[in-house]
Amino acid sequence: MAEENPLRRKSDNTAGCGNAPRESVLPPRKGVIVAHRGVAVEVRFADGEQRPVRVKRNSGHVVGDTVLVRGEALERVPRSTELRRRDGRGTPHLVAANLHVLGVVVAPQPPPPRGFIDRAIVAARAAALRPLIIVNKADLDGAGELDRHMRNLYGESVPVFLLSAKTAKGLDPLRRFLAEGLRGAFVGTTGVGKSSLLNALCPDLDLTVGALREARGVGRHTTTVATLHRLPGGGELIDTPGFRDFGLVDIVVEELIVHFPGFEPAMMVRCRFRDCRHRSEPGCAVTALVSTGALAEERYQAYLELLSEVDAAQGEARRREWKT
Length: 324
Ligand code: GDP
Ligand code: ZN
Description:
It is a single chain. This protein is of the alpha/beta class. It has three domains: 27-76, CATH 2.40.50.140; 82-239, P-loop containing nucleotide triphosphate hydrolases (Rossmann fold, 3-Layer(aba) Sandwich), CATH 3.40.50; 253-323, Probable gtpase engc, domain 3 (Ribonucleotide Reductase Protein R1, domain 1), CATH 1.10.40. The protein is built from ten helices and 13 strands. It has helices at residues 5-14, 116-126, 143-154, 171-178, 194-201, 213-217, 253-259, 264-269, 285-292, 297-323; strands at residues 29-36, 40-45, 50-54, 66-70, 73-76, 82-86, 92-97, 101-106, 130-135, 160-162, 183-187, 227-230, 236-239. Strands 10-9-8-11-13-12 form a six-stranded mixed beta sheet, with helices on both faces. A five-stranded antiparallel beta sheet has the order 3-2-1-4-5, with no helix packed on it. A two-stranded antiparallel ribbon has the order 6-7. Strand 9 (130-135), helix 3 and strand 10 (160-162) form a beta-alpha-beta unit. Helix 2 (116-126) crosses helix 7 (253-259). The protein is globular. It binds guanosine-5'-diphosphate and zinc ion.
């Protein structure tokens, strides 16, 4: 890989000049990137040792990457999953690698924006992550109702957890779930309590909570750095500033038509056309589900609304591309 070459040359040049063993003859040590600080990544090895390893600034490594380290040379192991976000211009950025689950955090206050949960579930599945819904602020009025609503809409598709990051009530089932050795991250709109939840689950973290976080965080701790944290009972969480706060999850039509929550039975039978958008195509397994009542009309309408939105955004993005 490109970033290794200068290091290799360096070791080759010094070989024979000193007593240091050539890096290439050292057995590689396997580790995971737990933080990324521009010109260095922090690697945690299997024996628990942790140390920085220098990398090129745009090496492309991210938190969660499995790496083989030989002296100062670092090689990335192919990833099983990649979590991306798009910036304001629609350019995708890799946020973290090798995650298993994405926790979609919602709360009675602020309520989830329309379509947010569906988008987040589709985005997670498209990235081969298992989505889960976390209803936070169980101590507030309206949490029970939101939880019932979530179970009603999504209970058949994804696990739903009701908890309070503030009182710690209900944290254990989520801890047990993650303790299966799963690596996860949270996503949700600002104010739902993602930082509070990370603080409650990861004792080594101390994130500032509340609306003033971004302003206060500058210089206090490096808020833009993604970090990976081991949970005391097992499992890991990635704190992804800049990702966790985004309110609108970007998805494309091709992902929406196969991953919309509630379409699972239809995806097993399949529609006649591979690229069926489930509007009025003949042999559509989704509209068949709606006609038998197996898929609620409300869910189908939510899908159609999201489809129009995503389709329009995609068309707009394509037009912009042609212009530039
Ligand atoms: P984030 O923007 O999603 O990271 O949310 P924060 O963790 O910064 O929390 C936003 C606000 O919600 C803060 O005032 C927290 O104290 C509050 N909060 C977080 N979790 C809970 C909870 O379980 N119950 C209640 N009542 N408030 C909470
Ligand atoms: Zn269809």
